[in-house]
Every structure is written in C-alpha cells, then in structure tokens.
Description:
Elements: H1 25-33, E1 39-44, H2 47-61, E2 68-69, H3 74-79, H4 82-95, E3 100-105, H5 107-112, H6 116-125, E4 134-138, H7 147-161, E5 173-176, H8 182-194, E6 199-201, H9 227-232, E7 238-242, H10 248-258, E8 262-265, H11 271-285, H12 291-311, E9 315-319, H13 322-334, E10 338-344, H14 351-359, E11 364-367, H15 371-380, E12 385-388, H16 393-399, E13 403-405, H17 423-445
Parallel strand pairs: 1-2, 1-3, 3-4, 5-6, 5-7, 7-8, 9-10, 9-12, 10-11, 12-13
The structure holds iron/sulfur cluster.
Amino acid sequence: MLLRHTPKEIKERSALTVNPAKTCQPVGAMYAALGVHKCLPHSHGSQGCCAYHRSALTRHYKEPVMAGTSSFTEGASVFGGQANLLEAINNIFTIYNPDVIAVHTTCLSETIGDDLTQITNKAKEEGKVPDGKYVIKANTPSYVGSHVTGFANMVKGIVDAFPVNTGHKTNTINIIPGYVEPSDMSEIKRIASEMGIKTIVFPDTSNVLNGPQTGKYDMYPSGGTKIPDLIKAGDSKATIALGPIASGPAAKALDTKCKVPCEILKLPIGIKATDEFVDRLRILGGVSVSEEIKTERGQAVDVITDMQQYFAGKKAALIGDPDQMVSLAGFLTDIGMKVRHVVTGTSGKKFEKRIREAAGEDVNVKEGGDYFYFHQLIKNEKVDLILGNSYSKYISRDEDIPLIRFGFPIYDRVGHQYNPCVGYRGAMRLLENILNALLDRQDRDALEEKFELVM
Length: 455
Ligand code: SF4
C-alpha cells in the first residue's frame, strides 16, 4: 500500500504536480538523436542532467546510451556555457569521431539564455567542426513540455539541418514514425517495404537500441538513418507524420523548407489507425495492399471476433503520451471495452477533444495531469485494467488492478524493444496482452466450481 495516503476526494490543483506522468524534454531529444546514424547526443547543461537523461534511456532499453555533456560548473552557470560547448564540440569530434553531434539545452542553459545557433556557428568559424561533419541542435527547456516535445524539437532540428530540395522529386515517401519503440520503427518500415514502397524513415532507432549481442562493443551501432538519406528527404514526394504531437512539427517544417507535402496521421496502434496508415501508403505509393498485410489484418480481426465476450464492457484506465493515448483509446473502444480515465503528462489543448472523438463523450480526460490525479480517478471509479508505464505499478498494486505495461518508460520488463505495438502485428500483441491479463484475473478470482479449462 505504497500510495495509501492518496485521498478519494479530488480538489482543484494548479500549482502542484505529484508524481509527474512525463519526463523532461532532453530525454526525448536524446532518443531522437540516437535515431541518426553515427550521431552522439550532447546535453548542454550540468553533468547531473545528462546522467539522468542517459540513465532514463539505458534503464528502458537495457542498452548503454552514450552522450556528451557541457559539464556546467558554478562559473558556467553564471557567465554562460559558450566556452564549455566550444571545447566539448572540439573534444568530441577529436576523440569520439561521430558524424553528427546533436546538442540539446537543459533547464539551466535555457535559463541563462545560451544561444545555440550563435555558439554552433562560432564552432564552425573556429574550425572545430571538421568537413563533412554536422552539429544539429534543439531547444529543450524542461520547465515547459515533456520528453515528447523534446523528441519533436530534435526531429525538427534534424529537418532544419539536413534535407535539401534539389528540384528533382523522387518516388520516395518520408515517414516520421513518432515517439515509438525501435521495434515499432522496424515494423513501420516492414509494412511499407511489404507494399513495395520506397521510404526514408527518420529518426530510426531500430538496430541502435535493440541491436543483437555480438560480443563486441560498437559505440555507433549499424542502425540509424544515414546522412545521405536525411539530405535526400528534401526531394521525396510526400511525408507521412505519425502522431501530431511528436512528428507534426518536423513534417510541417520539411514542407516549408523543401516543399514536401505532409500528411499527419494518428499513430498506427489498433486496426482503424493502422488501416488509415496503410491506406495513405497505398494512395501515395500508387500500389495495392499486399496479401501478407491483408492476412495480418484478418488475423487481428479474427482474434477480436473470437474473444469479444472477454473484452466487452471491461473498463480501462490509460496513462501515457498523447499520440499513444488517442490511438489506444480508439482501439480499446473498438474492441468493446469502456475507456473510463485517460491522463497524459504532456500539455496540449486538443488532447481532450481527440480522446472524446476516440472513446466517446463519457470519459474522464486530463492533459498535463499527474499520477496522483490518475489514482484519484481510479479510486472514484474502479476499472478492470490499467495501461501505462512502469510507474503505474504502484497504483496497480494498491488497487489490485492488472497492469499492462505500455509506453515510456518501462524499467521493469523487457520485450517492448523487440516486439511492436504498431501495425496489425502490434495490434495482435496488444490483444494477447489484454486478454492474458483479463483471463488471468478471471482464473485467480474464480470459485472452484467455476474454474474453467477452456475459456
Ligand atoms: S534540470 Fe531540467 S533538464 Fe535537467 S534533468 Fe531536471 S528537468 Fe531535465
């Protein structure tokens, strides 16, 4: 009963967050940077911030995450961090030889007012950036936004730095996959390739944060979008951005910069959202949907049909990132469950409207909310299932409600790196997890005479 002091009575709170449902912007910026091949993220602030950003990713992926830091001291905190960043850029290219350094700010450097554009330009003028190497950047103050906005800002930083419109359009479609797992990025690429469509997917953390054990440490794994591809993204005929919050800003920036028209879709979690993604691929690519993809869809729908009696009417509470929550709420509603509470730690005015469109008007929704409020909602109306990240386990234990780990971060399980939740295969995996949780609970609570072999 770790959270036994959470009261049931909900009072209006505006100035206090209790157990935030988000992490800070640089965590997302660092994750996005790892999706560029041979890129070393760099945290412009104190060592403590960088240690936290790296450990958040390392604990989630169970992989070492490398990043540099400007290592602010008291002096840098007062007089600005320009000297530290210039020295860091010089050292990193000399010692670690990345192709790209992706610099993001922290609360401290933002509060001082360090100007990344001015500092990185100075680094180039002083010859600290070797030919053919790049320094990209994103402003990621953590007193606003969350890891999702940090991710969005760094993906926009990638767009600001690389794509070029040469005037020769190609038949390629850019896909910005959103703040999803490496396994999801692989699955998005597989679906497009299965349909015979040439794509440039960026950022792409597959084979960076879910690579195989080879017995040999490689500071820059084989994955990540390569720089020539990022440059060519400016000549693609269209961009599909998955998730308006995480991918929308970069897609719009690419449209403005290189005249690549963009379509912003939901994350393809669940049947309907995946249908929309596959259909846009079909239309933009001028292809037919392959038999393999049709079979996968049919299998997912078959599971829902066969087991719908176990899903029907079951109440769910969801907590996580906004793009994920919208698609997940829609999917659970489509399979007959009742989505009762949805909370995201990321602020956004349209969140409530999008959730109500996905799950109906009769649902408790909160943007910029926290775990304390989420727990209070559950205390006021019990649910059968919680879907959220590892921090949800305290509420799950206190309220004796099954938890399906979903989203970021997941510190206490593996599998999310390797098994997707997007696409029809991802929908099958989610269905399996949901069904297992519901049937395990039914078995646990069944009277002896009602204990069933076949369910
Ligand atoms: S000080 Fe700001 S940037 Fe650093 S870890 Fe804390 S929230 Fe993140």
